[in-house]
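worker-3 :: picked PUA domain-containing protein
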Amino acid sequence: MFKKFDPAEDIIGTQQLKSSVQKGIRTKLKEQYPHLGDYINDILPKKENFKQVKCRDHVEMIAREDGVVLFVKPRDNPYIPTLRLLHQYPFILPHQQVDKGAIKFVLNGSQVMCPGLTSPGARMTPGLEKERVVAIMAEGKQHALGIGVMKMSTEDIRQINKGIGIDNIHYLNDGLWKVTTVS
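worker-3 :: tokens ->
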């Protein structure tokens, strides 16, 4: 999704959000990511304003006042944390681990195929449903290398073992990773 993201071309505009809208976004984030509850005030402090950055293709970003992008919201998807935020708070998302052979493909923006999640070096968090946002981990690596949306439940991935298992949304060194701040 962010393979060729360029802030100079893809950002349409930014706007400061009213405090009531900010409160609503904080509440929605706490609902989507219950493990974030104790840390939401560290990430988006109540005393500081944050802004909404509108991009092409109906993508919104939530950024702090200093311009650091924290969450992304594609058209009909939930808010998705950026990898930089996920590296600070790795417990936000459930982890799906791919084997070593899938690493180069994930870092190239490819979707995660079911065999990459069911092979000997891979591990899946049981009980995850379709459309769940997950961290894409790699065998032998400490930090997430991508964030994706499940296209099948973990049970379906194990049983079918064919096709796309996770839609790769954001990964290391994509266009969004290279954006450190937005103005």
